[in-house]
Design goal:
heterodimer, A: alpha+beta, BirA Bifunctional Protein, domain 2, 3-stranded antiparallel β-sheet, 12 helices, 10 strands, B: alpha+beta, Phenylalanyl-tRNA Synthetase, Chain B, domain 1, OB fold (Dihydrolipoamide Acetyltransferase, E2P), 6 domains, 7-stranded mixed β-sheet, 6-stranded antiparallel β-sheet, 21 helices, 29% strand, EC 6.1.1.20 (chain A)
Chain lengths: 348, 804
């Protein structure tokens, strides 16, 4: 048999081998056994020394063709096998992606803190500072300095926990106003402040009363501050807390530390003003108290009330949370039942 | 203050405004309305009846069979259980088909076989409260006057065809604690001037009040106005229906014509009056003075009151006969036998009345009006009106003249402002005409010049004395809702969180990311809990007059509150609890307010990781909590100064599983496992807690961070394992290794701790990895080996380590 025929025979045999190969490893073995240095093609070509010189180019060409074809078939088969192997691997690695993920435990911010922080952030953006004060205060700062002298009938509005005749649990965050006013240097700009914190009233705890609750108060004192500025600020606050489409309504009221004093209603966020059980059929919900800072409060803090004036407002985060989320019992805020707290994990 | 729409209609023309509209306008211009009630809307088919016969039912000890004329063709038979029903009475009858309060419907029925065609009503059944019903109708039906028309709507007779506006009056608007005050307020809203009917007082010119009383006042500051009239030859009877119903609707129980008139006049004018039985005074002298210490007076309610010099009393020259402005005396009050009445109308110093009412716990309609101030202009008018009415109802005569001591006249105060000031503070654009009109509506005289508006405020509005008061009047009558909305346009100032506020927020987020939820607990707790877990020995701060034992002392730790929370949760089947709190603790200071210190505390119980399809349960332990604390301190940049020292001092914590936390030697907190005894008492499983004082970190920013270049050369490490006495602390071992470790030692990590098989009892095996790095060159093997050798030697020498 001539070399040419031998080459053709080897090719045919190799193709059969490749056909029956079923792993990349087999393919590699086939490649070595035919194309390797000691492979069949090499050993056939050893017979070239007996071929006439004019035949040699013909056989050489033939050998190259066989090599090329064999390589092509091998490569093709290898790729196919690799693909199959990958496919098998993927299939064997398939998991139930609907199984639950690993546990991540994350705590949540208390709902009252969320409300206070939202308000703080709104006012920080408008150049207000956050100022906190003592929870235990003197009668002088808690009452007298906010225009509530001894034996003033308005002291009845706030039942007080006294520690001594002169020291008490603050009944509102307003003493911070007096303390901040007396230290503020108006040559360095207006006073714009927000004071959040705990306050205390002599009350028996029930679903709507708590001896401990929170307040957040704001105050702006400068030249040329108007009641219209108060109204605009309150509108912004109401929209922030209850949604862009809310409107507010001011009603005259009385607080010793402001005059005029107003109570602020927001259009009902549940029914939009039609009247429902949340707004007690009125379309309005009372959310905060405010007013123009009383000149006595300014004067007692050494601020010239003919030159400076401004406004103050205060609201109760507990009440806001109860309204906004339909919480039916104020005690939930202080018992820290995890089934309650974790309902407010929406954000930090 | 409950305002009757019909009564208000006596001085104003309300024909154009419904009760609800009026209430809405009052709310928006000045006084909050709590509600409007229109009782007739609930009631129907209730008529005047005439009892023809009333006979006790044969087999009953309380039921009567009555025949009642109700304006129908035939009289009807009604069974009535009231003890006071009698033939001849005019009564209130609910016919079949009638509706009473609370939706009660009346049907034709049978009682013990006897047909009853309706019901004879008590006042309570018509919606009146027990406390306002006249004593004689308390247990039975209400009897109408004889001239009531049979078959007519009975509601008109008892004043139920009316609307009642409940005003919530703030302390500054005490002027509206009277019908006249409300009429002025409503008049300003409706642009009407209220018209009041005058008093027709006729005095007996033959008799002078000076023959009866001689009034004197010890201190005119306590009692600036004291007036007294005398009404003689009286027969004290029940009041007529018109007077009774006005009082009942205002929430006051009718007593007799004299007392009722004093109450009626108080409602009309806001001026409290007091009527004495003149003969019981036993003296011509009326002296108003401070009580003497330990003097006593039996007040109208029969209680003997011990008085002090803080109480003002009316005396008969010798002994107290009334507690001024608060309550009359039992011995001198008007009775059915009274013939002559001495009637007092006065102004007492408000804080004195307030203190007396408060200390004796005797708040009344009178005392609250004295406390909040009175219209000094109508002290005499009210007295005259009352005297005339008492005389007319009791067929008596008013003795001529008023005995009085008056040291203060009513003041028409002038307050000024400017148009610029008004518009400048309200943000409005009002004209001078508009402002003038507002003051006119309020009934305030005003004069306007180019640069000043001068307003004369009548004494009935004693709440107005400064410019800000005028601004408020203008704003509210103009309407708060007409004021524009703007934002302050002042100089910009930075709004940013302080370091302490940022750190507090960071700490909150940090704890949350470690799986702890934020709690807010009560700062007031029991004395025992307040002192628990306290980091120092300072005294508790107690409330002077607590509401309950549960909330009487200020906490000295956050942990006792958190522990309450854990217990609350565990008791409700929430077994895994992880909470933290940031809040104040309070310690007493001599001669100063208590010191308030911000702490952060946390508590964990139950599992860290729950059993699941691919995880096995991990329970909370000391080291889980310590890891959180260490990482927090590290992010604050202070971990280097921190040491943990075993502590057996806190009785609430496990003596073998508690560490004090020191920062640069300062005691700042504690980490530990709850004492097993306490855990058992509280039905808790293993619970680990921490509490740290944040103040040192809030005070100063620990900003020592500076960038270190990322190492270019590889580091290397060595492991060491050795056996030591079990009493040797990890921290001692670390101290030794750190001290002698050499300059390339970067970190040491404990990777194994073992006690048990193959280790001698009382010993433990520790294994650490020491990591070395030279940032400027590749470390040489020999350098590391020699440094590592020093560590080994030091461990052998200093902690008697047996290197393995």
């Amino acid at each position: 048999m001539g070399i040419e025929e031998q080459l053709t025979g080897v090719l045919a045999k190799a193709v059969t081998d490749i056909d029956s190969a079923d792993s990349v490893k087999d393919i590699e073995a086939i490649r070595v056994s035919y194309l390797g240095k000691k492979g069949e093609i090499t050993s056939i070509l050893k017979g070239m020394k007996d071929v006439s010189p004019d035949q040699r180019p013909v056989i050489g060409k033939k050998a190259n063709e066989v090599r090329d074809e064999l390589t092509a078939v091998l490569t093709h088969k290898k790729e196919r096998l690799e693909k199959e192997a990958l496919q098998n691997q993927l299939e064997s690695e398939t998991i139930d992606v609907t199984l639950p993920g690993r546990q991540v435990k994350k705590g949540q911010t208390h709902v009252l803190t969320q409300i206070m922080e939202d308000i703080e952030d709104l006012f920080l953006g408008m150049g207000y500072q956050i100022i906190e004060g003592n929870e235990v205060e003197s009668d002088y700062y808690n009452f007298e300095r906010v225009n509530l002298p001894q034996n003033h009938p308005a002291r009845d509005m706030q039942d007080t926990f006294y520690i001594t005749p002169d020291v008490l649990m603050r009944t509102h965050t307003s003493p911070i106003q007096a303390r901040t006013l007396e230290n503020h240097d108006f040559s360095k700009g207006p006073l714009k402040m927000i004071s959040p914190g705990k306050v205390y009233r002599r009350d028996t705890d029930d679903a709507t009363h708590s001896h401990q609750f929170h307040q957040i108060e704001g105050m702006v004192i400068d030249e040329n501050i108007t009641m219209a500025d108060l109204k605009g600020t309150l509108e912004l606050l109401a929209k922030k807390m209850f949604g862009e489409e809310r409107e507010i309504r001011l009603r005259p009221s009385y607080f010793p530390f402001t005059e005029p004093s107003v109570e602020v209603d927001v259009s009902c966020f549940k029914c939009g003003g039609e009247g429902c059980n949340v707004c007690k059929k009125t379309g309005w919900i009372e959310i905060l108290g405010a007013g123009m800072t009383h000149p006595n409060v300014l004067e007692m803090s050494g601020v010239d009330s003919s030159k400076y004036g401004g406004f103050a407002f205060g609201l109760g985060p507990d009440r806001i949370a109860m309204l906004k989320y339909g919480v039916d019992d104020i005690r939930h805020f202080y018992l820290n039942d995890q089934r309650f707290l974790t309902q407010f994990k929406r954000k930090g | 203050m409950k305002v009757s729409y019909n009564w208000l209609n006596e001085s104003l023309d309300l024909s154009g405004v419904s009760p609800r509209d009026l209430a809405e306008q009052i709310t928006l211009t000045g006084i909050e309305v709590d509600g409007v009630s229109e009782p007739a809307k609930e009631l129907k088919n209730i008529v005047v009846g005439h009892v023809l016969t009333a006979e006790r039912m044969a087999d009953s000890d309380h039921l009567n069979v009555t025949v009642v004329e109700v304006g129908q063709e035939e009289p009807v038979q009604i069974v009535c259980g009231a003890p006071n029903v009698k033939a001849g009475q005019k009564v209130v009858v609910a016919l079949p088909g009638a509706r009473l309060v609370n939706g009660l419907k009346i049907k034709k029925s049978k009682l013990r076989g006897v047909v009853s065609n309706g019901m004879i009503c008590s006042l309570e059944e018509l919606g009146f409260s027990d406390s306002v019903v006249p004593k004689n109708s308390e247990d039975g039906i209400y009897v109408l006057p004889e001239d009531a028309h049979i078959g007519e709507d009975a509601l008109t007779y008892i004043g139920l065809n009316d609307a009642f506006i409940e005003l919530d009056i703030t302390p500054n608007r005490a002027d509206a604690l009277s019908m006249r005050g409300v009429a002025y307020e409503a008049g300003a809203i409706l642009e009407q001037t209220p018209k009041f009917t005058g008093v027709n007082l006729s005095e007996d010119p033959t008799d002078s009040v000076d023959d009866y009383v001689n009034v004197s006042v010890e201190n005119s500051e306590d009692n600036p106005i004291y007036k007294m009239r005398v009404i003689k030859d009286l027969v004290v009877t029940e009041s007529p229906l018109w007077l009774q119903r006005k009082l009942m609707h205002a929430g006051i129980r009718p007593i007799d014509a004299v007392v009722d008139v004093t109450n009626y006049i108080m409602l009309e004018y806001g001026q409290p009056l007091h009527a004495f039985d003149y003969d019981a005074l036993n003296s011509k002298d009326i002296l108003v003075r401070r009580a003497k210490d330990s003097e006593t007076l039996i007040t109208l309610d029969g209680v003997e009151r011990k008085l002090t010099a803080d109480n003002l009393v009316i005396t008969n020259g010798a002994d107290p006969v009334a507690l001024a402005g608060v309550m009359g005396g039992e011995n001198t009050h008007v009775t059915g036998e009274t013939k002559t009445v001495a009637l007092e109308s006065a102004v007492f110093e408000s804080s004195l009345i307030r203190k007396t009412a408060q200390s004796l716990n005797l708040r009344s309609e009178s005392s609250s009006r004295f406390e909040k101030g009175l219209n000094k202009e109508t002290v005499q008018d009210a007295l005259d009106h009352a005297a005339a009415l008492i005389a007319s109802l009791g067929n008596g005569q008013v003795v001529s003249g008023t005995a009085e001591v008056v040291s203060e006249e009513p003041v028409y105060q002038t307050v000024t402002t400017t148009l610029n000031k008004i518009n400048g503070s309200l943000g409005t654009d009002l004209t001078i005409d508009e402002v003038e009109k507002i003051f006119s509506r309020l009934g305030f005289e005003n004069s306007v010049t180019v640069d000043e508006i001068s307003v004369t405020v009548p004494p009935r509005r004693w709440d107005i004395s400064i410019e800000a008061d005028l601004l408020e009047e203008v704003a509210r009558i103009y309407g708060y809702n007409q004021i524009p909305s703007t934002l302050p346009h002042s100089e910009s100032v930075p709004g940013e969180l302080t370091h302490a506020q940022k750190l507090t927020r960071f700490t909150r987020h940090f704890m949350e990311s470690c799986g702890l939820g934020q709690a807010i607990s009560y700062a007031l707790t029991t004395s025992e809990k307040a002192a628990a877990f306290s980091l120092d020995e300072s005294e508790l701060v107690h409330l002077d007059w607590p509401m309950s034992e549960e909330h009487k002392a200020l906490r000295q730790s956050l942990l006792s509150g958190l522990l309450d929370n854990v217990q609350y949760n565990v008791a409700r089947q929430t077994k895994n609890v992880a909470l933290f709190e940031i809040g104040r603790i309070f310690t007493r200071q001599e001669n100063d307010l208590p010191k308030e210190t911000t702490h952060v505390a946390g508590v964990m119980t139950g599992t860290l990781v729950d059993n699941s399809w691919q995880e096995t349960e991990t329970r909370v332990d000391y080291f889980a909590v310590k890891g959180i604390v260490e990482e927090w301190l590290d992010t604050l940049g202070v971990l280097e100064g921190i040491s943990f020292v075993p502590s057996k001092e806190l009785p609430e914590l496990h003596p073998g599983r508690t560490a004090k936390v020191l920062w640069n030697g300062q005691y700042i907190g504690v980490i530990g496992q709850l004492h097993p005894q306490l855990a058992q008492d509280r039905d808790l499983n293993d619970t680990v807690v921490f509490e740290l004082n944040m103040e040192p970190f809030l005070a100063n920013e620990q900003d020592t961070l500076s960038f270190e270049s990322i190492p270019k050369y590889p580091g290397t490490s060595r492991d060491i394992a050795f056996v030591v006495d079990e009493s040797v602390l990890h921290e001692e071992v670390m101290d030794v290794m750190t001290e002698v470790g050499g300059k390339w030692l970067r970190s040491i990590r404990l990777f194994d701790l073992y006690q048990g098989d193959n280790i001698e009892a009382g010993k433990k095996s520790l294994a650490y990895t020491l990591s070395y790095l030279n940032p400027d060159a590749t470390l040489k093997e020999e350098e590391v080996n020699s440094d590592f050798e020093k560590v080994k030697q030091a461990l052998v020498e200093r902690v008697q380590a047996d290197i393995r």
